[in-house]
Amino acid sequence: MSMMFGFAVRLLVLISFFSMGLSCYQCFIDQNESVRLCSGHIVSEYNIRNVDACFNTLDRIFNNNRRVINAAKVGRADYNNLKDLLRGEIMPIVEEFDENMNNDTVYEDRLQAAAHTFIIMASGLSRASGCFPPCGFQAEGSVYNCITCQYDSCEFPLDCPLQEITVEENNGTQMWCQVPFVLPGDIQIVWRYAEIKTLLMDQFEEVTVGRDKLFSIPTARLEHSGTYQCEIFSQERSLVRIYYHLTVVPSDVVGHAELQEVFDKALLPAGKFLILPSIPPFSLLRLPSPELLTVCLTSLLLLLFLTLGLLYWWSSKKMDSDEDQTLEPHWNRHTFQIVVQDQ
Question: pLDDT tens digit string along 113-123?
Answer without folding.
Answer: 999 999 999 99
